[in-house]
Specification:
The protein is α/β, with parallel strands linked by helices. The protein contains 9 helices and 17 strands. Helices cover 27% and strands 28% of the residues.
Amino acid sequence: MRIVYLGTPDFAVLPLKKLVESGEHEIVGVVTNKDKPVGRKQILTAPPVKQYALENGLPVYQYSKIRIEGVEDMKALKPDLMITCAFGQILSQEILDIAKHGVINIHASLLPKYRGASPIHYAMLNGEKKTGITIMKTDIGIDTGDMILQEELEILDGETCGSLFERLSVLGAECLMKALPLVENGTAKYIKQDEDKATFSKIVRKEHALIDWNDSAENVYNKIRAYNPAPIAFCYLDGNPFKVYEAKVVDGSGAAGQVLKAENELIIACGSSALSLLTVQKAGGKPMNIKDFLRGNKFILGSEFK
């Protein structure tokens, strides 16, 4: 098939790589978002999907809004199928109607649960024990289209969002390659989603990562995992941001945010139970394991994190 692939971040690179290496289809275009300034120096940086496409000689198209700027380009490519994976833009019906087989999407949840922009974060925030990949036919709604196939993936104990992203990207690539022949030969079974079970995940923003010590230790622990590697869960210490990269739930009780232990380990009381902080970063410092951090930072028992 003649395929146009639409994706932007690291998550979308491996499915494209798998597609290219299979040699079974012709990639007639790769569509991604515009280059953006990155880091403190605001260096203009290409999205990971663009970087991979250029390295492999694939034609790249970049739009701020494909539904406005890219319609004629896409029609000219005459694709049999369009594939989206973490593309980050809403497609118009005009775009959806271009390819003979329409548009299919690689979505990182077991739909209809966690539609939207941040399904991996939400699965971890809510303490799910499993998640997965859904290959679905894209319609005009947000992740509301009929499902072609799903595969589950166990969320490991202590896993961070970063490692789960990587494993789901691998599974997404595998699921895509299983779905493509079904779409091409017309044997795909399109299953409607149960709207009564649908939930939605919003775009993750930095302010969402603020720790509320009044919450249960389990919920704070899940927040720390969900926002690692970005934007990183944080609270305030002496009025300055204090980041927490890693922690574990332990027994303990006290006023929410209160330091219960500060020798060899740093234990903070939550609304219920407590957390032992394992990797932290104070304002102006670098991430440190807790033993190294405590060598240079002393805490008074009963002092509070905000």
